[in-house]
Every structure is written in C-alpha cells, then in structure tokens.
Amino acid sequence: MNAPRRKSIQEVINQLEELKSTIETLRDEEQEAFNNLPEGFQCSERGEAMEAAAENLDNAYNSIDEALESLVESLGE
Q1: In terms of residue numbers, what domain contains 63?
Q2: Where does the pLDDT of residue 39 fall: very low under 50, low under 70, confident under 90, or very high at 90 and above?
Q3: How far, in Å, CA of 35 to CA of 39, rounded?
Q4: Lowest-pLDDT range, 32-36, 44-48, 61-65, 73-77?
Q5: The dihedral of CA 10, 13, 17, 18: what is its sign?
Q6: 57: which residues sit within 8 A by CB, 6+ positions away?
C-alpha cells in the first residue's frame, strides 16, 4: 500500500477512535441513568427505551471496534 493511502486509513482510524470514545461515554451515561432508576421505572416504557438505547450504543461501539481492527490489519500492523 502506498503512503498516501496508508495516511488516509490512519486518519480514518483516528476519527473512528474519537467516535468510539464518544459512543462509550454516551453508552455509559445511558446505562448509569437506567441503573439509577427505581426498579418500578426500569420496567416502564421509558426504562425499557433507555435500556434499549444503551444496548444499541453498545452494539455501535462494538461495530466500530471491529472496523478499527480491520483497518489496522489492512495497514499490516
């Protein structure tokens, strides 16, 4: 792979790492907010939506992590 493409991939890696960090923070905040709800509210529609949001953020985090692994492998590192 030539240097310009390697540099472009590295820039994408850096951007994804920043997004991953942001998503991790949002996921943790949403999970904490859900965990701090009284048990009765956790079973409510709003509580279930909060839990689903945290799970979706976790899925997004994991997907970005997989993409990062693939990009790093493409660089041969």
Answers
A1: 3-75
A2: very high
A3: 9
A4: 73-77
A5: positive
A6: 23, 26, 27, 30
Q: Is the dihedral of CA 23, 25, 26, 32 positive or negative?
A: positive
* Residue 77: pLDDT over 90: no
How high does pLDDT run on average in the chain? 96
| Segment 38-44 mean pLDDT | 93
- Three-state SS for the chain is CCHHHHHHHHHHHHHHHHHHHHHHHHHHHHHHHHHCCCHHHHCCHHHHHHHHHHHHHHHHHHHHHHHHHHHHHHHCC
Q: How many domains does the chain have?
A: 1
